[in-house]
Amino acid sequence: MSEIEISSKRDFETTIGKGVSLVDFNAPWCAPCRDQDSVIKQLDKSYSGKAVVAKVNIDENREIALKLGIQSIPTIILFRNGREIQRFVGLQPVETLFAALDNALA
What we know:
about 110 residues, alpha/beta, Glutaredoxin, 5-stranded mixed sheet, about 40% helix
């Protein structure tokens, strides 16, 4: 299973609409984003069937990034039923994101 690549506003709204979703906002040229990628892949594997793990390339989806006020990347946002419940800016350790997802699912 590979994390979902969100490529439109409609995809984004569908992805975050139900349940718990963790969305990684990034860009291919961003070195910390590339470093974060292995953690995102781990989360995707560990939470398969329990939560959605998705990625948004902010260069290709500026409208989504602007609407959410994303000013630096990587930014990782946790959503529950379409509402933002937690936001992380900058490179995050795997433990932090595992704890946040466990909390959101509890």
